[in-house]
Amino acid sequence: MSGFILETKHLTKEFKGFTAVNDVNLKVQRGHIHALIGPNGAGKTTCFNLLTKFLVPTSGQILFNGKDITAAKPAQIARMGVIRSFQISAVFPHLTVLQNVRIGLQRQLGNSFNFWQSERSLNALNDRAMQLLADVDLSEFADTITVDMPYGRKRALEIATTLAMEPELMLLDEPTQGMGHEDVHRVTELIKKVSAGRTILMVEHNMKVVSGICDKISVLQRGAMLAEGSYAEVSSNAQVMEAYMGTEATVLEGAH
Ligand SMILES: Nc1ncnc2c1ncn2[C@@H]1O[C@H](COP(=O)(O)OP(=O)(O)OP(=O)(O)O)[C@@H](O)[C@H]1O
Ligand SMILES: [Mg+2]
């Protein structure tokens, strides 16, 4: 099998004549933390929506583990091990932290939303759920109502519910968005930790995070691939610097 877990070939998405994703050839190496960056409106989220089948490409192909998944349905993709953590929190705010992880585990078992299952059978999932909470450093919050947790911890819970589905490829859309320094640091470390044995593709605006943990970076601009490489390579690329000029000129500098 090739070293690429995910590949796109000439991936294109048009919205009424506007090309949001333009002929993108993305190759994600198995085991990597791969960042997709670019100015606002570059097409990053649209790319994710294409990869998870929330949107149908206008043209082009998507290969997962060498298999053409362009025509697959979202649920099929998830079962194959491509799991996305949402930009907007996807956990149930009025359930406890532990309950949210148990629901994630049940989804993985294929009986989604079985709230009516007996408490006893739900308890069978507790050990695994507590292990996942320990993995994301949330053990002490197990019985906390989710909405009462600090924002950064909610994002960690989202990662735990994503892990519950045993992703081979995890897609994270702006995992540190809206966080203060401390939470950014904690979630960055967490992503690094959970990347062991899997592949992560993440959209991230914070260049400190990107430079700190990402093995490879792809830069999108106006829907097209502008540059790819290590952080050192893309951050010294003249076209990339220009792309960020005027919009987010300080973003790349901020990493140093
Ligand atoms: N459903 C849609 N219909 C029409 N245009 C869309 C649609 N979704 C996205 N677009 C446009 O496609 C372009 C890319 O948007 P996208 O959300 O993918 O950018 P992004 O790189 O994720 O930006 P940000 O950093 O702000 O999250 C934007 O110009 C956006 O307005
Ligand atoms: Mg976006």
From TrEMBL:
Q: Supply the InterPro entries for this chain.
A: AAA+_ATPase (IPR003593), ABC_AA/LPS_Transport (IPR051120), ABC_transporter-like_ATP-bd (IPR003439), BCA_ABC_TP_C (IPR032823), P-loop_NTPase (IPR027417)
What are the GO MF terms of this UniProt record?
A: ATP binding; ATP hydrolysis activity
What does the entry list under GO cellular component?
plasma membrane
The ABC transporter domain extends over 6-247
SMART domains, A to Z: AAA
Kindly indicate whether the keyword Transferase belongs to this entry. Answer: no
Q: Which domain of life is it from?
A: Bacteria
Keyword Membrane annotated:
yes
Its protein name is ATP-binding cassette domain-containing protein
Query: What is the organism field in this record?
Result: Duganella fentianensis
